[in-house]
């Protein structure tokens, strides 16, 4: 998982050709003005999910992983934790088998790293990165987020 400041996002354009499409969209659109919903940018190659929510306590969150897509998760306002665990580490239990239509598998993980994300930051989540979004911090916040789905395979 890559976590960085938004001002550095363009440094990652060469990770995959579809990242360029997403970064062009980010540069040319005010993501905070988009309504909640799904936006196709380049069909199933690159699309965006705009979300609004209150982060949840740990017991109401879950880890997920993807096989065919990477995420670029951008916090537009508010703040949250995101749990992280590499798929090659130990202590992983599959709780929901892989769903190819949604490109998601869900997990229970014993020990993980918490990463703080605010409206100056983003996270790039790759297939080896199991992640738990929407995790509440000690101080409650309402989050507006843009999640770009980038097809890799």
User: How many strands in all?
Assistant: 12
Quick one: CATH class? Mainly Beta
Provide the CATH superfamily: YhcH/YjgK/YiaL
Q: How many domains make up the 3D coordinates?
A: 1
CATH fold label: Jelly Rolls
For the largest beta sheet, what order do the strands appear in spatially? 1-10-5-12-3-2
User: Unreliable stretches, pLDDT < 50, 5 or more residues?
Assistant: none
Task: Provide a count of the helices.
Answer: 1
Provide the CATH architecture. Sandwich
The major pleated sheet works out as:
6 strands, antiparallel
Provide the helix percentage: under 10%
Shape: globular
- Using only C-alpha atoms, the radius of gyration works out to 15 Å
Structural class: mainly beta
- Provide the β-strand percentage band: over 45%
**Oligomer class:** single chain
Structure report:
The structure is a single chain. The protein is mainly beta. It has one domain: Jelly Rolls (Sandwich). 8% of the residues lie in helices and 52% in strands. The protein has one helix and twelve strands; from the N terminus they run βαβββββββββββ. The strands form three sheets. It has a six-stranded antiparallel beta sheet, covered by helices on one side. The protein is globular, with a radius of gyration of 15 Å. The mean pLDDT is 97.
């Amino acid at each position: 998982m890559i976590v960085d400041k938004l001002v550095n996002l363009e440094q990652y354009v060469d990770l995959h050709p579809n990242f360029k499409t997403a970064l062009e969209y980010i540069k040319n659109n005010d993501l905070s003005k988009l309504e909640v919903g799904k936006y196709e940018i380049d069909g199933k190659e690159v699309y965006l999910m705009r979300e609004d929510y209150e982060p949840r306590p740990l017991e109401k969150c879950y880890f997920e992983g993807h096989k065919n897509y990477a995420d670029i998760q951008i916090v537009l306002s508010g703040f949250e934790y995101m749990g992280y665990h590499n798929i090659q580490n130990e202590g992983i239990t599959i709780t929901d088998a892989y769903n190819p239509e949604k490109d998601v598998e869900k997990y229970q993980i014993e020990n993980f790293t918490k990463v703080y994300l605010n409206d100056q930051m983003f996270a790039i989540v790759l297939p080896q990165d199991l992640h738990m979004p929407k995790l509440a911090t000690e101080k409650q916040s309402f989050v507006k987020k843009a999640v770009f789905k980038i097809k890799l395979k």
